[in-house]
Design a protein that fits this description.
This protein is of the alpha/beta class and 611 residues long. 63% of the residues lie in helices and 8% in strands. The chain contains 23 helices and 9 strands. It is elongated.
């Protein structure tokens, strides 16, 4: 045990000393490979973004949608192809860094060129390993599939996740155990092949297949030591990276929170912050791969012998040219990087986004006219609202009035409830003068009057406000009948905080869309049998919207009266924004939708940075 710990300590000390001694060359060499990775992977990432966004037509794509794409044949092919390419590029970086650390005579460009010279064999090495890991996964995926078919077939996955019955825990436990066994076997194989790259570098006669076999021989009996060394490196890397990323996020949030919400300022600042975050992530990656390469080389040095490394680390010849190899490498990297960025920009710049978000005038537009009035409906039409949300109640004489409060206090009628007053008594009150002299004489309208005012120009989201359970049936029946008689079933939908009212409306008119209003909710709203959910803007989060989307259910956010809320709500995936000020919200919605695809993605990134 002591000998093992001493071996790990010796390998780590050797690795740290090597990195520190060659710090400048290690930094530049690692940077060169990161630039190469960027040049290769940036266009692929841009192509992936473009494919996802074109498929759904918006800059905000949810986790469920991404998962569905990755499980499709094109998604799986892309995952395997890009994954193999990432493995190959990182193998090249590790090879170059090992070359550099093994021989003090090498400059960074020589190490870079030396690793590039092994490109074919290193790519072969990466593909062989990826293929083995995928083949190893097949029986485990089949076992997980059998568990799914045995325990969960025919069940709603969302319901299982929310309710978590016994079969959920049994299936989840078995799936986790199967996946855990695969991870252990894959980790064991990873350790057995840990020395494959240094074998290719320093035992030059080896092919990629022979390098894997040679690595297996060298690691035999050393797996616990290698596992402890790699685990120690991983722990340090994760802790340091987590701390740096957290600090970078705090700084970004602080800056974005103080520059205001003007898009002309916010977007350039977001671009700068993204570049800064990319630089931080690149630095973390460089540190991680440099220390990993040094550690593996130190461990290989113990297994294969220092003499072998010293003998085989041969200095590559300079190119027979007047141009130094250093400048050839620099020029090539710059050209690749510029070309990759141009291709990436071109792929993203050609996107066609169509984020369809509708606007509903809350209480028919309570900011620009007396709420729930005919005047407000006409103003909502002029303001180009897509919908008007109105509130309908029954009076004492069984008439339908459009009014929000259940009593008359706020419109000057005292504390009487709406269902205790007649239509004539309610319409004797002037709801327009308190709002503004131009609305003097405006009365509480009947539902029929609002239907007539909206006509075919404005769709109505009709909220049912029953006075107790006994009022559910009569109110719902009267409202549905009025919509049917007006011939506006295709222009209206029903919403309510009374789930019973919604179910009754569907019985009476199956063509109507119904939505549940959730001020406060216990449990999962996405399990309700409705067409849409109306929630407060602070509850309109991606997790709920993704679950609702699985049930083909929209989420509408209320009451949004700040333009700064619009872009984040679009990014969360809401289908409708309910507001007292349709003009303000329409202006910001148009501004967001008019952005170029690149700027739209920057705005999406700003939202993520400020979470």
């Amino acid at each position: 045990m002591k000998a093992s710990l001493a071996g790990i300590s010796d390998a780590i000390s050797w690795a740290l000393h090597g990195v520190r001694e060659r710090l400048r060359d290690v930094f530049v060499c690692s940077l060169a490979f990161e630039i190469l990775n960027l040049a290769v992977l940036a266009p692929l990432a841009a192509a992936g973004f473009r494919l996802l966004m074109q498929r759904w037509g918006r800059a905000s794509v949810g986790n469920f949608e991404i998962a569905l794409f990755l499980l499709s044949p094109p998604g799986l092919a892309a995952l395997v192809g890009i994954g193999s390419l990432i493995v190959a590029t990182h193998f090249l970086e590790v090879a170059g860094l090992m070359r550099l650390l093994a021989d003090r005579r090498l400059h960074w460009w020589s190490a870079f060129g030396s690793a590039a010279g092994l490109f074919y064999r290193i790519v072969q090495l990466g593909l062989r390993q990826v293929a083995v890991y995928l083949l190893l996964a097949v029986p485990f995926l089949a076992a997980i599939g059998i568990v799914y078919l045995s325990l969960w077939s025919g069940r709603d996955l969302n319901g299982l996740i929310i309710l978590r019955p016994a079969e959920f825990w049994i299936g989840a436990g078995l799936g986790a155990a199967i996946a855990g066994i695969y991870v252990l076997l894959a980790a064991r194989q990873f350790l057995r092949w840990l020395f494959a790259i240094p074998v290719l570098l320093f035992e030059s006669s080896q092919s990629s297949r022979a390098a894997l076999q040679r690595s297996t021989e060298l690691t035999r009996g050393r797996l616990p030591v290698l596992a402890a060394a790699i685990a120690s490196w991983g722990f340090i890397q994760v802790c340091s990276a987590g701390l740096v990323v957290a600090l970078a996020k705090i700084v970004a949030e602080w800056i974005l929170g103080r520059i205001g919400n003007s898009l002309t300022v916010a977007l350039p600042v977001t671009a700068v912050l993204l570049l800064a975050n990319a630089a931080v992530l690149m630095a973390l990656s460089m540190f991680g791969w440099a220390t990993f390469s040094a550690l593996v080389l130190g461990l290989y040095r113990q297994a294969a012998g220092e003499v072998l490394i010293a003998r085989e680390a041969i200095l590559p010849e300079e190119l027979p040219s007047r141009i130094p190899l250093r400048w050839v490498a620099v020029t090539g990297l710059v050209a690749l990087c510029v070309g990759g960025l141009i291709v990436s920009g071109g792929l993203l710049g050609q996107l066609q986004l169509g984020e369809a978000v509708q606007i509903t005038a809350h209480r028919a537009g309570a900011l620009r006219g007396p709420e729930n009035s005919v005047a407000a409906v006409r103003q909502a039409i002029a303001d180009r609202a897509d919908w008007a949300e109105i509130d309908v109640q029954r009076t004492a004489d069984d008439k339908l009035v459009v009014m929000h409060d259940i009593d008359l206090a706020r419109i000057g009628g005292g504390k009487r409830r709406v269902d205790q007053a007649t239509l004539a008594e309610i319409q004797s009150l002037d709801i327009g003068s308190p709002f503004g002299p131009q609305f003097a004489g405006e009365k509480v309208p009947t539902f029929a009057e609002v239907l007539a005012a909206a006509g075919r120009e404005l769709r109505l989201n009709v909220e049912l406000k029953p006075h107790g359970r006994g009022d559910v049936g009569p109110l719902t029946e009267r409202v549905v009948a009025a919509i049917q008689n007006a011939g506006l079933v295709d222009r209206c939908r029903i919403c309510s905080q009374s789930y019973e009212s919604l179910q009754r409306a569907l019985e009476l008119e199956p063509r109507l869309q119904v939505g549940f209003i959730a001020a406060v909710a216990v449990g999962d709203l996405a399990r309700l049998d409705v067409d849409f959910l109306m929630v407060g803007a602070d509850r309109a989060k991606r997790a709920l919207i993704d679950r609702a989307a699985l049930q083909e259910m929209e989420v509408h956010a209320w009451t949004v009266n700040s333009a700064d809320q619009v872009a984040p709500l679009i990014d969360e995936g809401v289908a409708n924004i309910i507001t007292d000020d349709p003009v303000l919200i329409r202006q910001r919605l148009n501004e967001v939708q008019a952005l170029s695809p690149v700027n739209r993605l920057l705005l999406r990134a700003r939202h993520e940075l400020m979470r």
